[in-house]
Specification:
The chain is an alpha/beta fold. The strands form four sheets. It has an eight-stranded parallel beta barrel with strand order 2-3-4-5-6-8-11-12, surrounded by eight helices. Strands 7-9-10 form a three-stranded mixed beta sheet, covered by helices on one side. Helices cover about 40% and strands about 15% of the residues. The relative contact order is 0.16. The protein is built from 13 helices and 15 strands. The structure holds beta-D-glucopyranose. Beta-D-glucopyranose binds next to loops.
Length: about 425
Amino acid sequence: MTPPTGPRLTLPEGFLLGASTSAHQVEGNNVGSDWWAVENRPGTFVAERSGDAADSFHRWPEDMDLLRELGFNAYRFSVEWARIEPERGHVSRAAVAHYRAMVLGALERGLTPVVTLHHFTSPQWFSARGGWASPEAAGLFAAYASVAAEILSAGVRHVATINEPNMIALMHTMIRRLNSGEQTGSGAAAFDPSTVEPDAEVTQSLIRAHRAAYEVLKAADPGLRVGWTVANQVYRAEPGAAEVAEAHAHPREDVFLEAAREDDWIGVQAYTRHRIGPDGPLPVEPGAETTLTGWEYYPEALGLAIRHTAAVVGPHVPVLVTENGIATGDDERRVAYTTEALASLASALRDGIDVRGYLHWSALDNYEWGSYRPTFGLIAVDPRTFARTPKPSARWLGALARAGEIPDGAPAAVPAGVRSAG
Ligand code: BGC
């Protein structure tokens, strides 16, 4: 592969350039979690089980060694509530020790750990009590956060309470429909977020849980930088659809950004854009390039998501890109996509937006919530031997991290129809 050449932007001092994973997607055998239960029950709508995943529960030192050798300076991973508190109020000291060792392991290697407390999976006991729909949810999550503070005290600065609460609120509606038989289907087809309304009660419960965890974490260590991460949908209003797009976007994204106005940072997670017409969401335009998840190939989504997030949350809250990437079997497309995405980030930086890092999704090929087919990884994983093989994209992005530079492009104009603020 010939690495792309072109203008580069020198990154600000301390900029984090690394990669992300989540526990359920890479650890394997997360048997106490609600996702594991759903994957393994008879007649499940989930096409493929997570099983051993990438066995990162045991192989995390190798993952971190690789990231460091490749040139990265940061690693985002999540700690698993179902392992830390396998039964309500029962804390596994071994799990706490395990994740403390991961934090220390990252720091020893010169990787800044960015730690997520909740990345889609909850303990089975939590879901059995109603999960995020339960009035107890915020208190239970805050109690877990106070245990997690012991892990973070090993040297974490950046902690995300909840990953993509906006997707969780949608998933609640989808799971309720599947359970009631209102909706059928399996795999990705069962999860088309454009066709459902986010659960409004769950939305409020997630915001309460985030705020409660924020307080607990800051009380444990006022130096912690606490935030959460939002799935940025980059809604693009077609002509005549501005109001429809606003109405669609607010409960699905902006309400969660508004809730981050008092936070220490905000996580941007962007992959593609979503067009909204006068009658609502539109499918990907015929002939447009799509990725293995069926999403439109649209790398500029990253810069637009950063701009929209900064406009809604406010300039006083720094942005961390906690996820951006592409599901593809063609690694040259990954480099092309990431080059353009980073150029759109460079343009936002040049415009004065306070972006503090870029964490690519994903470090490893992993379990994509029902299937191993969409490969997002910079590093390939053999499903039988678990051997890790960095792809050329990993070497390319790692070299940029080592040089402290990213691709730069012409200043991006914001295309017509893209909302800049909430
Ligand atoms: C999630 C990841 C997921 C990725 C790609 C994000 O919504 O946080 O867990 O793998 O997108 O679908």
